[in-house]
Amino acid sequence: MAKQYETVIGLEVHVELATKTKIFCGCSTQFGGAPNTHTCPVCTGMPGSLPVLNKQVVEYALAVGLATNCQINQHCKFDRKNYFYPDNPQNYQISQLYLPICHDGGVEIETEKGKKTIGIHEIHMEEDAGKLIHDEWEDCSLVDFNRSGVPLIEIVSEPDMRSAEEVIAYLDKLRLIIQYLGASDCKLQEGSMRADVNLSVREAGAEKFGTRTEMKNLNSFKAIAHAIENERERQIDLLEAGEAVVQETRRWDDTKEYSYAMRSKEDAQDYRYFPDPDLTPVYISDEWIARVRAAQPELRTEKLQRYKEEFSIPEYDAGILTSSKRLADLFEEATAICKKPKKVSNWLMGETLRLLKENGQEPEDLRFSPENLAKLVNLADAGTVNNRVAKEVFEKIFTDDIDPEVYVEEHGLKTVNDEGALRSTVEAVIAANPQSVADYKGGKEKAIGFLVGQTMKAMKGKADPGAVNKMLKEILSR
């Protein structure tokens, strides 16, 4: 009988914090500036420059720690992790090894197999390194220090996950908690959330962990799921062939769907950690913790429950609306204005998600205002515009955030409610289409659809299709 194997997975998740300036200097953290323009002597590691801790970094790390049920180290400090790499200007990284800010937490995930708590070993603050750009033409590497010194928190899980499904559920839970807190936008594609996967396999029922590998360069949930499946199979094949798994760092290539070895895995002693002599220890008072705790917003789990109870929204809809902070904010703010939660939800769930998908965008990219969405809901609800016109106007709101009331007025898009004008148009359409009239009277119900279409065309789309249908039937039944 073939051996059964169990996968054991732990994650190291790096999150870039949403501060306006870097962790130890006043340089901008904005994404996408020209190379080496967001730099100064501190973040380029010039001799004699001294770091000064950004208080907001501690505040965000505290907020994430409290939201993930961690214990807080009220006396924590920074350490130097020494290694040489061209994008690491000081030849050390300032991190936290001995006394990280948060430890012993956990979050609950839900998968098809039910609920499970994934333990969090620790959360520590650190600085990001710069970025190497490999120039194929010149056959050289260039370094951009804009990212150097950008504040990170590293969330280290316990090895509690057993499948790609659990890993994705855990990452999604973390992403939503951190986005709701406003601590980071957590965009995997921009690198503001990055996950390294530590994975080993062992025979089912075994107590001892197998030899683990660490996989880097994973910038989408899809890549993470594929990398886990691939590495699991690779390790099982080695064990089945009687070979040993080597403890190493591997790099995932998403285009080839293959991982290859980068270097053998170092241990903490290889980095010669020691307390950073330039930074004083951080003291976090009870009052500071209480203040951060009191400022915590409503997180997704509570919001989901409230939407179902307060707005009578189905669980599926509430799940999608709360799956993005931006969608949830738009929903709540537009509902507060027009007092029509189900209709606001329908516009967000239908047209908004459709246009996002067509444009390859994320909900965080939405730029239209809740005021204009609420105005459109009211216009459509009052019958001032018909459904077709409402969708056309919404597309303009989606791209240009136009005021729908002004746009409808300026473009003459109001539904024609003049019964006399509608009646004369309907009569003209009936007179012009004797065959369809005969078909309808002969029992072909579908023929009325053609007559409705012709009337709408004659009215330039500005009639209410329901009213047209009703009037046609009334005249034809005489």
Automatic annotation (TrEMBL):
Classification via SUPFAM superfamilies: GatB/YqeY motif (SSF89095), Glutamine synthetase/guanido kinase (SSF55931)
Keywords, in A-Z order: ATP-binding, Ligase, Nucleotide-binding, Protein biosynthesis
Membrane-spanning segments: none
Enzymatic class: ligase
Domain of life from the UniProt record: Bacteria
Molecular function as annotated in GO: asparaginyl-tRNA synthase (glutamine-hydrolyzing) activity; ATP binding; glutaminyl-tRNA synthase (glutamine-hydrolyzing) activity; transferase activity
E.C. no: 6.3.5.-
Gene3D superfamilies: 1.10.10.410, GatB domain, N-terminal subdomain
Example GO BP: translation
One Pfam entry name: GatB_N
Keyword Methyltransferase recorded: no
Protein's UniProt keywords contain ATP-binding: yes
Record-annotated Asn/Gln amidotransferase domain positions: 329-476
Reaction catalysed by this enzyme: L-glutamyl-tRNA(Gln) + L-glutamine + ATP + H2O = L-glutaminyl-tRNA(Gln) + L-glutamate + ADP + phosphate + H(+); L-aspartyl-tRNA(Asn) + L-glutamine + ATP + H2O = L-asparaginyl-tRNA(Asn) + L-glutamate + ADP + phosphate + 2 H(+)
Cross-referenced InterPro entries: Asn/Gln-tRNA_amidoTrfase_suB/E, Asn/Gln-tRNA_Trfase_suB/E_cat, Asn/Gln_amidotransferase, Asn/Gln_tRNA_amidoTrase-B-like, GatB, GatB_C_1, GatB_Yqey_C_2, Gln-tRNA_amidoTrfase_suB_CS
Family listed: Belongs to the GatB/GatE family. GatB subfamily.
Subunit structure: Heterotrimer of A, B and C subunits.
Function in brief: Allows the formation of correctly charged Asn-tRNA(Asn) or Gln-tRNA(Gln) through the transamidation of misacylated Asp-tRNA(Asn) or Glu-tRNA(Gln) in organisms which lack either or both of asparaginyl-tRNA or glutaminyl-tRNA synthetases. The reaction takes place in the presence of glutamine and ATP through an activated phospho-Asp-tRNA(Asn) or phospho-Glu-tRNA(Gln).
Name of the featured protein: Aspartyl/glutamyl-tRNA(Asn/Gln) amidotransferase subunit B
Taxonomic source organism: Marvinbryantia formatexigens DSM 14469
Gene designation per UniProt: gatB
